[in-house]
Amino acid sequence: MLIDGFGRKVDYLRVSVTERCNFRCQYCMPEKPFSWVPKENLLSYEDLFKFIKVAIDEGIKKVRITGGEPLLREGLDEFIKMVYDYKNDIDLALTTNGFLLPKAAQKLKDAGLKRINISLDSLNPATASKIAQKNVLETVLKGIQAADDAGLKIKINCVPIKGINDEDVLEVLDFCKEKGYTVRFIEFMENHHAKDGAKGLNSDEIKQRVSKKYENFEIVPRDTSSPAQYYKLEDGYEFGIIEPHKDDFCSACNRIRLTAEGYLIPCLYFEDAMSIKDAVRANKIDEATAILKKVLEDKPEKNKWSVKDDNEVSSRAFYQTGG
Ligand SMILES: Nc1nc2c(ncn2[C@@H]2O[C@H](COP(=O)(O)OP(=O)(O)OP(=O)(O)O)[C@@H](O)[C@H]2O)c(=O)[nH]1
Ligand SMILES: C[S@@+](CC[C@H](N)C(=O)[O-])C[C@H]1O[C@@H](n2cnc3c(N)ncnc32)[C@H](O)[C@@H]1O
Ligand code: SF4
Ligand code: SF4
């Protein structure tokens, strides 16, 4: 079992397979970075898998593949199959913008993927294009349908940004409710890579939008395996809000992150990281295990977004870290 320096059990590994992306979301990567990580610096799937095996052997129960846009990296279904074949009872999931799903969904399911979280910020084509800075909505909706048809369990992620898609909250919720998908609204996490001036809705503002149509909803006891706080409408439908600005958000943190370059990141807010690249490339499994334990020992207690009234801005890029 993996325990961090604050006594929290860590059983969730997020693996970013690429920092590249085919969208330029305003809250994440509004402009193409000055340079991408050169291909030779990326860990191969075989090397990423060596680390995942270490992590699973040490107690990781949930593995999520993310990015950048993970579906841009060729052979993702084969990578997923490697993990599935190693331990098929792992909660094996993917986070994607959905654009490449129309072709990929069935292959991912066949490879052993169990769940998929797809970003959908608006059902208005112009608004969706404004956020992603590309005409995306029609293809993303086809991608969501393809994932549904393939039998993948779907969650939708939506980041409401003031003045852009903040009035779309109810429409996205109703779409998900009708389709039987779980929706989570994510508070925008201030970071230096987002578009200047971007401001998100906070949890209370999101709830206000929901209550315009659904007056009564109750808080659901927090399931600490997921970052979302769920709320239940009178008809039983549950929606989530990811509230990283709340003081106690991090108290149940069960996550660590591995980037495509082989950096192990203890917290989404901070720059701290340790590389496992040399260890896995040299097949030094004991060394990789020691680095994992060291990163957990030093995992911060909480982020700084929660500093009241004056939110701090993180310098960590979400597209590199995997969100
Ligand atoms: N601050 C913070 N935000 C997180 C953390 N984990 C997830 N998030 C935010 O929630 C977003 C959605 O996460 P997903 O990739 O869908 O994964 P998840 O919410 O863990 O998924 P489930 O396993 O389905 O609950 C991330 O991109 C982040 O924006 C975390 O540890 N800290
Ligand atoms: C970094 S993306 C990677 C996976 C994929 N490209 C996608 O968009 O789903 C993972 C998640 O991070 C969220 N995200 C990105 N930047 C964010 C920010 N500044 N604040 C909150 N969530 C953010 C996205 O909405 C998405 O749900
Ligand atoms: S949120 Fe996802 S889709 Fe949007 S730019 Fe970031 S990595 Fe790409
Ligand atoms: S901000 Fe850091 S400590 Fe808090 S939940 Fe996210 S990764 Fe964990």
UniProtKB/TrEMBL annotation:
Pathway: Cofactor biosynthesis; molybdopterin biosynthesis. Its cofactor is [4Fe-4S] cluster. PROSITE patterns: MOAA_NIFB_PQQE, RADICAL_SAM. Keywords: 4Fe-4S, GTP-binding, Iron, Iron-sulfur, Lyase, Metal-binding, Molybdenum cofactor biosynthesis, Nucleotide-binding, S-adenosyl-L-methionine. The keyword Nucleotide-binding applies. [4Fe-4S] cluster 1 binds at residues 21, 25, 28. Coiled coil: none annotated. [4Fe-4S] cluster 2 binds at residues 250, 253, 267. It holds the Pfam family Radical_SAM. It catalyses: GTP + AH2 + S-adenosyl-L-methionine = (8S)-3',8-cyclo-7,8-dihydroguanosine 5'-triphosphate + 5'-deoxyadenosine + L-methionine + A + H(+). Its EC number is 4.1.99.22. Residues 5-228 form the Radical SAM core domain. S-adenosyl-L-methionine binds at residues 27, 68, 119, 189. InterPro entries: Aldolase_TIM, Elp3/MiaA/NifB-like_rSAM, MoaA, MoaA-like, MoaA_NifB_PqqE_Fe-S-bd_CS, MoaA_twitch, MoCo_biosynth_MoaA/MoaC, rSAM. One of its GO terms (molecular function) is GTP 3',8'-cyclase activity. The keyword 4Fe-4S applies. Binds 2 [4Fe-4S] clusters. Binds 1 [4Fe-4S] cluster coordinated with 3 cysteines and an exchangeable S-adenosyl-L-methionine and 1 [4Fe-4S] cluster coordinated with 3 cysteines and the GTP-derived substrate. GTP binds at residues 14, 64, 95, 155, 255-257. Monomer and homodimer. Catalyzes the cyclization of GTP to (8S)-3',8-cyclo-7,8-dihydroguanosine 5'-triphosphate. PANTHER family: MOLYBDENUM COFACTOR BIOSYNTHESIS PROTEIN 1, MOLYBDOPTERIN COFACTOR SYNTHESIS PROTEIN A. Belongs to the radical SAM superfamily. MoaA family. This is GTP 3',8-cyclase.
